[in-house]
Here is the input.
Amino acid sequence: MMKKTLRALARNKNLLVGGIMVLIVVVMALFAGLIAPYPYNEAHLLDKMKPPCAAYPFGTDDFGRDMLSRVIYGAQPALRVALLAMIIEMGIGITLGLIAGYYGGVVDHAVTFVGDLTWCVPPIVLTMAVITMIGKGLDNVIIATALVSWAQYTRIVRAKTQALRGMAFVETAVAFNERDSAILLRYILPNVMPSIIVLASLSIPQTIMSTTALSFLGMGAQPPSPDWGLALSASFRFITTAPWLAVFPGLALVFTVFAFNLFGEGLRDMLDPRLKV
Amino acid sequence: MGRYCIKKLLQGLLMIFTVSVLVFLMLHMMPGDPVDLMMDRKVDASKKEAMRVQYGFDKPLPEQYFNWLGGILHGDFGTSIRMRQPVSKLFQARIPVTLELCGIAMLLELVIAVPLGLLSAYKKDSLFDRIVMSLSLFFAAIPSFWTAVMLILIFGVTLKWLPISGFGSPSNYVLPIAAMVMGWTASSIRMTKTEVLDVLREKYVLTAYAKGLPHRSVMVRHVLRNALILVTVVVFMSIPWLIGGAVIIENIFVIPGMGSLLTQAILNQDFAVVQACVLLIAVLTVICNLMSDIITAILDPRIRASMGGGE
Amino acid sequence: MSVVIHTQDLTKRFQIAPGLFRRSARYVNAVDRVSLDIREGEIVGLIGESGSGKTTLARVLLGLTPATEGVAQVNGRDIVSVRRAELRKMREDVAVVFQDPAANLNPRQTVESSIIRPLVIRGMKKAEARRKAAEALEKVKLDASYLRAYPHQLSGGQQQRIAIARAMVLDPRIMILDEPTSALDISVQAQVLNLLLDLQEEYHLTYLVITHDINVIRYIADRIAVMYMGRLVEIGAADDVLEHPIHPYTINLEQFVPALDPNRRSDKRRSALTEEKTLASQRPDACILCESCPYAVDRCAHARPELTEYTPGHFAACNRRVNEDDSSK
Amino acid sequence: MNDALLEVNRLSVGYKVEDGWLSAVHDVSFAIRKGEFFALVGESGCGKSTIASTIMRLSLDHNERLEGEVRFEGHDLIRATEPEMEAIRGSGIGMIFQNPLDSLNPVYTVGWQIDEALRAGGMDARSARKRTVELMEAVQIPDAARRANAFPHELSGGMRQRVMIAMMLSRSPRLLIADEPTTALDVTVEAQILEIMKDMRDRTGASVLMITHNFGIVAETADHVGIMYAGELVECGSVYEIFARPSHPYSFALLNALPRRRKRDGRIQTIEGTVPRILGESRGCRFANRCPRAMDCCRTEAPPRRELGADHWMRCHLEVNA
Here is the structure.
């Protein structure tokens, strides 16, 4: 069993490389305190705006803060946002998808309509509208993102549930008196799970991209957070004098998004070979 | 076909109506007095009451809604409190700018993504396919705002070839559009390829070969023609994302379009503007979806049959 | 012998075209006034082509879809005027095996958890349920090592045996088998058919076997019921229905079944009595065959024939008594 | 065998899989005469469909390995170039598939799709449509002129399969391959489709290669029968011979597993065990592990071809008893 998994992993290069890259980001976030040379908001007043050098490999910003440390700590808000938003989206999306798909009828129409509503404004605009109401800040960005993006889970869970509901093993279970809750949790959900996992791994990078964009626009993370989007936004005015300030947080962001994309592609190849590109 | 279009149109109208109600309620769902929210500083009670009457906040909600909607239908989107101008006037100057940006970006995306996606699918596993796929995977991972920053750094700051902000001359378009297009084109290439590969696996492609059609006819009449249906969906689905992208890009390059207007309005809590922007963008998206539905129905007789109702 | 399944004018109506108002909607009767008695310990074969309503009838009898009107009783329990508790009780006596072996089992459950689940629902202790699962596997002639396997690790025949084992575990009195061997290869089909016959004899079960395959029906059924476009057109002892079919549809159907013998090849040109029809062309007050039947008389177009007993135990719904000469091929 | 239209000689097909080469077809030889109805029967996975698509060279995967030859009117199709195959497909060999809904392009009318085949043969658009309607009438599609403007999803399964037959007959091929053409259809419709195919064979003199798992269809239509097991052709003979004297232990068991009797006349036979999955080279007889009459040599030596009469042979170590 173990051997087989390893062999599959060796063949699936996307999964392997993506997995390792994701692991690096996760380690960066979890052990930032151990890896980073300085605390992220420690100002070295004598070393403001230093270009990359031995002491500060990524240079320092206008407060004299070490950019390497800030980039490493920046993994924390990025992953926190992605994870929390994903959990909320899944909670809403899967529940509604199961109910709409299994019971059909009016409930289904209602859920589908509300879901379609969230598609009819570009996600970033809708997120911004929600932020107008609940206010700026990273936590609000998480809530706004989740409120806007749950429908992608509903859509896929609903479709799969509808297909599974008519399958012989589900009908048989109904015929031997399985209760609805057990049908949904024991028979349908486990069979929808692979699709959910693939979707999650592909939507995490989207979430990271859009939330850093909001931070970049000043609606998300607020100073002195080491958030990459915020760092890019703060460094924008020094683009002519201190370009390293814009390069490194951006690279970290690209690395993270790329890692999850790769990992997600690999997962999809493994769990849903039909979609292999 | 007619019934199908009417059905889709009604669905779209219902959608827009619901969005308009939600947008209207935005102001009222917030904690606190709408008048307070609309003013940048504290005003005394009597003036507040006067404003309440002036804006009609003393009337029941449904009446307020229909007054608001009636205004919009007559081109009156309310007044921006921060900029002290009618919103419609702000729109007049800014909508064309955003449409222009998005239009050019979409055209470019189409011209680049569709052929590359097709070729990649057709020459699956070739060197060409591998290069295109690797590059697209990489570019899809770059957020547009960082692409913008890097483009500015390289072409604006270091090479000094192109202006980094402002709007007016053609050279102003190059960097913003490049930043908008890159990430989305990359994703669209991958989507197009998936769709074409799906068609290539269809049984009717075998039938086309079996009846003796030359390879090129099979590709053009059976593979391309059917992949077109799915590609249409991909293209129209990318429109909302392009608009979303424009919001960010306009801010970076200081372009006076809808996106920068919306961002400013949100940061300044300028509600009338936010409401009008969101509603307008929603209408645009619904229209795009409607067009996508109708075009797919024209291209695919099965959809006409299944959605038209009746046998 | 007592009657275990009894239906009287059982009807299941579906809406086919959605109407804006109730009046403009169009309906068809997927099951159209079917009256059927199945006695304890017999194997009734229900035969029909796609769209004949045979699967819908099974689903109604299993309580998977509610009937529109009429009477349906299983073991004396009424399942049309459903009360949930009643339905749950009824289901304890009836087990089901569907056609597609791969779809019959939950892909994410081991064979053992699939089999013990019905027992656990009934409140049996896990340990005892496991013991019964092993027994059930023995009944279907598989060894206990398969308990830990997942469905995708098994062949189609093995999957189908496990579906049968799961049906058997509750000691049902009635089994509804919906095309139980249609998806299987010939050699595996033989194994499963023999297994079903062995189980039926040993445990004195009652089977309702639904299939489109006359050869399978001929092999296992005691009585045969023929359905066409929602209606039961003929029912009787297997020999009677196969050797002396009465209803023109049955005669037609049997003519079209390829003989498993090249010497009995029918080289004469055969004309189809039935074009492929959809239920939408159903007419409530006429015989379903009235337009194409060579024996049709005037009455057929405006009187729906009722099931009539021709010879003892052999019923058909035809307006015109067909001569013995015409029916023997 | 001068009148052979198609000769398959020692054909082997292997597929590259994770753990080696999967032997899908191994050392298969048979011939189809002009005007003959040849049925290739076997259970799922026996390689019968692989043979069909190999003859047409329709495999889209590039991970296969072909050995041996397939001679169609003297040309070896295994070594034919793609343009040569394009010239043979349609006008030399036509093929119809199992599920007629998947096999027709959903976005074109059925008439257009038949026209297209005719136009590929050089006909102009107007005479093509006229011929299309004639062809549709020939396969007994009622109201053909109107039905030609229907989309595939608007027709019933039987009508779709008739359209497929009309399309494949449009350029008068000498061989029609039918891969499980009636599996998705009801028996009455099946009988009609088979009738149309026999009728077409009688009228045009084309040969038919029927791929099926259904012995009823074989008995009803075939002149010659080949029985396949695990990628090998184990027995071949006239339909009367095969049904009267099935000689290979597998053929014998298979024919006795058919539910031809009633239960009171005794149980039908079964074949225990499962089909082996064969990677790389195999030695011996592939049926040996399930064969009730297997001997030691069956597991080590390839079974020889034994002649059982005119045009009737099997591959088995068993001696032929007179």
Summary: Chain C touches chain B through four residues (CB under 8 Å). The CA atoms of residues 31 and 85 of chain C lie 25 Å apart. The radius of gyration of chain C is 21 Å. Chain C has two domains: 3-17+26-243, 257-329.
